[in-house]
Design brief:
heterodimer; A: alpha/beta; FAD/NAD(P)-binding domain; Enolase-like, domain 1; 3 domains; 5-stranded parallel beta sheet; 29% strand; B: Rieske Iron-sulfur Protein; globular; iron (chain B)
Chain lengths: 405, 104
């Protein structure tokens, strides 16, 4: 078993193969120097913690004990499907019976000239270290892109005292996948922390002299910053698959069992697009920690012949200041919304399809105020339940009781 | 062994639910199972120190509100990724409508 990509997904797949009792060779190949680690803390605790600690999902000792070979700092450069070989950047090659591509995604590049060493992206722990070094009360940070990474970094930068400006081309922050009501709560929280949010502003030009970045906006304003962090989305890493003749459709195209058209090659996590059963097989690609984890485990099962279809409901979260947002399901499938207010200003929006089926729930509140209800909503979505709007909207009706119905 | 300490009233927790209890600088989670028994564990998830009292109880399982790490709250056993370290459990008894916990 060979796994390309040693992130959350690949690491989880390797460990799952052993959990399931597979005793043959397992090789995990990653291009970073680190053990598989969790990426969500990179924009948060890795920035604001007392020391920038990496959160590994395993250890050398566990990998040794479980006979998982981890080849680090090496890229896979080609797949030879006829010979069932993966060629690596160090000149060696690996033979496989089953191959998993867990190659992840990379930050979308800002397609304009003028970017220099003060214009950076966040994907890896080493990227996080480089950004962290600039976050202090003397520095001005410009964040290009009002999505999750950008806003979490804005919150972390404020915590460390930097002056922060967020630039978003869309009319509001979090346009993709987050309802306006919830984006407004987050917007307010940033303003209360003295973050300047400039929405509806395209970038006309960037000049980076290695010390300062000058960003000219379409509205005429100019922002000068000591560091510009670009967080405008991610693109799946599909080159290896495409060159091997595998189909790419907004990600390496796999079936419900995460298998490509080649029965011996699987793909999972950020890099793949797959049919989402809960939404009539709609093809999606998810960039989320839990999806990476679940698909890594599912791919491992299916590499061993389980033939199990993906059935999970998408779920993700974001932490900014004391607020946590959680979303289960795909809110763009909804046609109407029902609001449930919880204690402490927390609230949940339930998104209903035309036929009344619950298709998503988006919640925000302090700490983990929305966690339990979002989890129950996720179960209702998985059951394809169509709960009554009045029940969803009333805090006195327990969601758990709707699940039993 | 140390004394029994009152954590809450038996009625304070719904069936198949969980409540937070703080004592002496420590924090705990007290559970009422679907079959109306009471249990107690350390309050914080062993993965990222998130309080389990915000989590969801389903049968014998408490699920962490942050990353869905799962534990059997009766035994403290971690039930798979991302959690791998078991929770410590504590003896619990109900006496005259009060939930008592022996935190030792």
């Amino acid at each position: 078993m060979v796994i390309i990509g040693a992130g959350e997904c690949g690491g989880r797949a390797a460990l799952t193969l052993r959990d399931l009792g597979y005793e043959g060779p397992v090789t995990l190949v990653g291009d970073e120097p680190h053990l598989p680690y969790e990426r969500p803390p990179l924009s948060k605790e890795a920035m604001t913690g007392p020391a920038p600690a990496i959160k590994s999902i395993t250890s050398d000792a566990v990998l040794a004990e479980r006979s998982i070979r981890h080849i680090h700092s090496v890229r896979a450069v080609a797949i030879d499907r006829a010979e069932r070989l993966v060629r690596l950047s160090d000149g060696s090659s690996l033979r496989y019976d089953k191959l998993l591509l867990a190659t992840g995604s990379l930050p979308r590049k800002l397609p304009m000239p003028g970017l220099g060493e003060r214009c950076v992206y966040l994907r890896t722990f080493n990227d996080a270290l480089a950004i962290r070094a600039h976050l202090n009360p003397k520095n001005r940070v410009a964040i290009i892109g009002g999505g999750f990474i950008g806003l979490e970094l804005a919150a972390s930068s404020r915590k460390l005292g930097a002056t922060v400006t967020v630039i978003e081309a869309q009319p509001r922050i979090l346009m993709r996948g987050v309802p306006a009501e919830i984006a407004a709560v987050i917007h307010k929280a940033h303003e209360a922390e003295s973050v300047t949010i400039l929405a509806g502003q395209g970038i006309e030009a960037i000049a980076d002299d290695g010390k300062e970045v000058r960003i000219s906006l379409t509205g005429g304003q100019q922002i000068v910053a000591d560091l510009a962090v670009i967080g405008i989305g991610a693109v799946p890493v599909t080159g290896l698959a495409a060159e091997a003749g595998l189909a790419v459709d907004n990600g390496i195209a796999v079936d419900a069992e995460l298998r490509t058209a080649d029965p011996d090659i699987f793909a999972a996590g950020d890099c793949c697009s797959f049919p989402l059963a809960a939404y009539g097989g709609r093809r999606v690609r998810l960039e989320a920690w839990r999806n990476a984890q679940e698909q890594g485990a599912l791919a491992a099962k299916n590499m061993l012949g389980a033939g199990e279809a993906h059935a999970a409901v998408p779920w993700f979260w974001s932490d900014q200041y004391g607020l946590t947002l959680q979303i289960a399901g795909l809110s763009d499938e909804g046609r109407s919304m029902v609001r449930r207010d919880l204690d402490d200003g927390a609230f949940i929006l339930f998104h209903l399809a035309e036929d009344g089926r619950l298709v998503a729930a988006s919640g925000i509140g302090p700490g983990n105020a929305v966690a339990r209800d979002i989890r129950l909503a996720e179960m209702l979505i998985a059951k394809r339940a169509a709960p009554a709007s009045e029940a969803l909207g009333s805090q006195t009706v327990k969601l758990k009781s709707l699940l039993a119905a | 062994m140390s004394d029994w300490i009152e954590a809450c009233k038996a009625d304070d927790i719904d069936e198949e639910d969980v409540k937070r209890f703080d004592h002496g600088g420590r924090t705990f989670a007290i559970y009422r199972s679907p079959d109306d028994e009471y249990f107690a564990t350390d309050g914080l998830c062993s993965h990222e120190k998130v309080h389990l009292a915000d989590g969801l109880v389903m049968d014998d399982i408490i699920e962490c509100p942050k990353h869905n790490g799962r534990f059997n709250y009766k035994t403290g056993a971690a039930k798979g990724a991302p959690v791998c370290v078991n929770l410590r459990t504590y003896p619990v008894k109900v006496d005259a409508g009060k939930v008592l916990i022996q935190i030792g």
